[in-house]
């Protein structure tokens, strides 16, 4: 039986954190056997915000090692810039996408507000590159966190438009968004999504997958909660709700069991239990990461064979799309 194809991507900027892990990467790993998986470290997306070239190179390899450390085994894993068809198809899709559709993207609005004096055209066009990533592999499913839903809707519209105007070519992809953990919030401010960029100047914002046990404990203890001191999954109390969601995703336990386990306990005790659980789950990842990053040639060979496999699929799709549009 032919497995359905999954594609997803992650940017090699900042520190990969618990939000990335619970919203995306953990699900890639947990469901790896169910699909034919293609995962990509999207360095060409990263340069839509200015990057230091040397840091970007290092972060790209580090993130690849981290994805393997998280448990990916049989997936095709590669670096986006190694397969040039991503940017090539991105251009074709740019030429069939109305500006108005891109103008509606909330991520563009958020990111351009952060640096209003230098909004790059690449940032505006970013969703077309993302559509190309997905459509190149004729992917059925795209496992992502909640924040990417709008981009996937655009990729769907683009696939439908292309198929209508140039003939059946692309599969219309569907997002796979977890019921729990699809939007992990910042520990310092539970009204804001946990994000790599906010982690840069706010030390208690995120838990990085490479944080040491001491740092994890400190950050959990400092996490913003409220004064009610009742450990319940109550969406109106965003701080404790977020911490409980992290606990639930990592333990795999039900909401009811978790609430009864902590029924007569206070926030202090819960925060320590949460830190212990995070430390326990991240320990093997950290250990495996340190081994992988220490053996660069092994890592490079995995990525090279990933890129070769990806390229084989991407070349075919790109050729098909280009010819249908009348390009020689
Ligand atoms: P990025 O860090 O933007 O490259 O995101 C990589 C993946 O992690 C995407 O699937 C995002 O939707 C997901 N993600 C990022 N931040 C969060 C978060 N705070 N909660 C859940 N998922 C997230
Ligand atoms: N835009 C995604 C993010 O910031 C990363 C990404 C790029 C992606 N291309 C993709 C995710 C294709 C899924 C599929 O998180």
TrEMBL record:
SUPFAM superfamilies recorded: Nucleotidylyl transferase
Q: Which CDD domains match?
A: TrpRS_core (cd00806)
Q: Per UniProt, what is the name of the gene that codes for the protein in this document? A: trpS
Q: Give an example GO molecular function.
A: tryptophan-tRNA ligase activity
**What is this protein's function per UniProt?**
Catalyzes the attachment of tryptophan to tRNA(Trp).
| Entry binding sites for L-tryptophan | 133
Organism phylogeny: Bacteria, Pseudomonadati, Campylobacterota, Epsilonproteobacteria, Campylobacterales
User: What name does UniProt use for this protein?
Assistant: Tryptophan--tRNA ligase
Give the family this protein belongs to, as stated in its UniProt record.
Belongs to the class-I aminoacyl-tRNA synthetase family.
The reaction(s) catalysed by this protein are: tRNA(Trp) + L-tryptophan + ATP = L-tryptophyl-tRNA(Trp) + AMP + diphosphate + H(+)
Give binding positions for ATP. 11-13, 19-20, 145-147, 184, 193-197
The keyword Transcription regulation is annotated on this UniProt entry = no
Q: Where is this motif: 'HIGH' region?
A: 12-20
Q: How far does the signal peptide extend, from start to end residue?
A: none
């Amino acid at each position: 039986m032919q497995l359905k194809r999954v594609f997803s991507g992650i940017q090699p900027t900042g520190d990969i954190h618990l939000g990335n892990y619970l919203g995306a990467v953990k699900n890639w790993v947990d469901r790896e056997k169910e699909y034919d998986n293609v995962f990509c470290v999207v360095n060409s997306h990263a340069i839509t915000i200015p990057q230091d070239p040397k840091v970007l190179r290092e972060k790209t390899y580090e993130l690849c090692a981290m994805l393997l450390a998280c448990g990916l085994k049989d997936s095709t894993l590669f670096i986006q810039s190694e397969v040039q068809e991503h940017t090539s198809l991105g251009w074709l899709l740019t030429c069939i996408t109305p500006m108005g559709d891109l103008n509606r993207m909330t991520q563009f609005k958020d990111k351009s507000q952060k640096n209003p004096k230098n909004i790059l055209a690449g940032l505006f066009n970013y969703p077309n590159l993302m559509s190309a990533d997905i459509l190149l592999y004729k992917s059925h499913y795209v496992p992502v966190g909640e924040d990417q839903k709008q981009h996937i809707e655009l990729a769907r519209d683009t696939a439908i438009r292309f198929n209508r105007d140039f003939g059946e070519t692309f599969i219309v992809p569907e997002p796979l968004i977890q019921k729990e953990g699809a939007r992990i919030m910042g520990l310092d401010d539970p009204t804001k999504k946990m994000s790599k960029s906010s982690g840069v100047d706010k030390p208690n914002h995120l838990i990085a997958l490479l944080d040491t046990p001491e740092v994890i404990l400190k950050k959990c203890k400092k996490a913003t909660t409220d004064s009610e001191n009742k450990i319940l999954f109550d969406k109106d109390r965003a701080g404790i709700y977020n911490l409980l969601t992290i606990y639930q995703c990592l333990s795999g336990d039900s909401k009811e069991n978790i609430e009864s386990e902590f029924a007569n306990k206070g926030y202090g005790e819960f925060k320590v239990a949460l830190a212990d659980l995070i430390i326990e789950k991240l320990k093997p990842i950290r250990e495996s990461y340190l081994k992988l990053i220490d053996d660069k040639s092994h890592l490079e060979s995995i990525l090279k064979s990933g890129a070769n496999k990806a390229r084989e699929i991407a070349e075919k799709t790109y050729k098909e799309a280009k010819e249908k549009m009348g390009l020689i």
